[in-house]
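Quick one:
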Amino acid sequence: MKTILIQLDTDPLPSTFDRVVAIDAGVDELFSYGGVTPEVVEGLVHGAMFTRKPTDLKNTAIFIGGSHVAAGETLLKAVTKSLFGPFKVSVMMDSNGSNTTAAATVLAAAKHLDLARTTAVVLGGTGPVGCRVAQLLLSQGATVRLASRSMERSKATCTMLTQTNEHASLIAHESQSESGLAAACEGVDLVVAAGAAKTRLISARQLAAISTLKLAIDLNAVAPAGIEGVEVMDKAREHLGHMVYGAIGVGGMKMKIHHAAIRNLFLANDRILDTAAIYELGKSVT
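Output:
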């Protein structure tokens, strides 16, 4: 029986990136829908559920994507709400590549650091990828400083993250000012820059001032770099006494995880691949 992946994209045009990855992961048939909203989800999901016997539904799966992560999260809730009884299909949510990128980032860090003993700062921590990097670092026992240009947004994101991990060691910081950035970075082992494209978050001088730094990861693939001095192709390169990764250096692992997650959807009909699940799956492909 052929595998079918149903791509539900919140953007008007379904992502070509996600479509190519699905085909490269071995999907037999790909149905792509753009501009999907929660109001139309039930019909699309039920069409996938009731066309095959429950024992065959592991061959049908749903991928939720799009550039807006909050919209993707809302769609994921609507999809899972539409599933019931034995008529289930597996679902993966990776809007804007946020979950696979975050998983690859934290797995790269785990190669060099004992995360349970790590103090990390996530710059751009209120964004879709930064928030998920912080979530995964916290789940591994790290102490996290979540930095944003807005202290209000930083505090709001920290409140959201602690709702699922009340014992998390998480502190909100503002990074707009020189003094605020210095405070956020003081004594950290790990710096992750997860800001918007073309946004410099920390200079080489500011990075060099972190005497405890062991690893810096920049997830910005569009110049200028989020971390000055880190190149997009860097992968475990030694730089000024610490290791560095650039966006493409992390991207290879991100792609491996994305491919593996798509294939994993077709092993059973009841899998929900969200941030935590994708990270756990990523451990097997490192």
